[in-house]
Amino acid sequence: MSILASKKRTIAIIGAGFSGTLTAVNMLRCNPPDNVRVVLVEQDAIHGRGLAYRFGDDNHLLNVPAGNMSALADDPNHFVSYCQDVDPAFNAKSFISRRLYGEYLQYTLAEAETSHPGVLEKITAEVIAVLPDASHEKFRIELRDGAFLEATEVVLALGHFAPRPPQSMPDYLHKYMINPWDFAALDGLDQKSPVAILGTGHTAIDALFRLTSCNRTRKVFLLSRRGLLPHGHRFNPTPPAASAYPAYLVGLPPTIRGYARALRQEVTRREAAGGNWRDVINELRPHTSSLWQTLPEAEQIRTLKKIVPYWDIHRHRLAPSAARRLENLLNSGQVELMAGRITQFDHGSSNLSIQVQGRRDTSVKTLDVSAVINCTGPNYDLSSLSAPLLSQLEKDGLILQDRLKLGLLVDDDYRVIDVNKRPNPGLFYMGPMLKARYWEAIAVPELRNHTFRLARNLMLLEE
Prior knowledge:
The protein has 13 helices and 17 strands. By secondary structure, the protein is α/β, with parallel strands linked by helices. It has a seven-stranded mixed beta sheet with strand order 9-15-10-11-12-13-14. Strands 4-3-2-8-17-16 form a six-stranded mixed beta sheet, covered by helices on one side.
């Protein structure tokens, strides 16, 4: 049964998290003609918030100051203005809660919808297949409940996928593993039993704060291969100014060792002159996509293995209050940071036993915990995902994974590349799996620009 059949040009966006919502918003703001209809399909009941911004816990802060968190590429003060309508004390240097940012995204979607009534239709459903028709001029979008949609163009805005379980963890022990965003499961854990968090990035810190918000005695182990933690932002940060391609990288051969050495030297030089390493990273950020694209594949692999963990802790920083809170938890002894690798999972006396070999020595420590929170990072390897839609698209040759398993291949206009290595007309991708091409594609400052360009591209198709 078709729940949408229209003679209008219909653009379907699958996924109403940040990327899908902002794609819809930007298309509406392009003043679409009367014969265009936009359909936003989301399997969860709430459109416009996405995974990171759907929860009501104000312990979770944005890791970017408000002045650089506008959802609109052409209105940089949009979010700050919204915040000041909520509380005049907020300003461009404030670190706002993710809850409030989720409300802002919903407000932005509603604002665009109100300005262009009758263009947007929101549907709550799970998409399980996208199939081109025989003419390749339309797509049939099949839903879990047996209904289907028809669209002339489709934007895949599928967001993040849960991390893979540790290879050393047997299937029968997976019952001890908890999704970091499953707050009901986190809150239901035994208050007296220790917990292990795998990973030490931002998601791990979020899970840690949830676990310790109402419990100041439970032991928490933060475990990763290198034991690295994100650095904090400076107090009173300002949005990074536009900067030219760094002079210290000009003329260097495309090797990550050469780039990293030059970056370290520039940091040393700037700090000797009274500067701050954060400014060097901020100025480099707009150019990391082009740097990534200049690296041969062997150098990209070397980057992933050797450099990325260190880059991430400098590039993805914590709000100052979050960094202070983490420091206090570590100093109190309630939280223990461990660098090493897990050699074995097994049943403990009553819970889960984890064998951890230290990174800098051969000693093995046994942890007895009630649960493991898996915060090792999103999984974009299509071969290991259980998402029906992606499985169908890959099986039918409509999409193509990059060789490094970072995401999907797309062309300059965000059209997905098919199995024949050709752009797939009418089928687009928007979201974090742009990392395969652009590297910088998971944060708001980059994604807002990508969604803006995609929306304009889609509207230009009408001309």
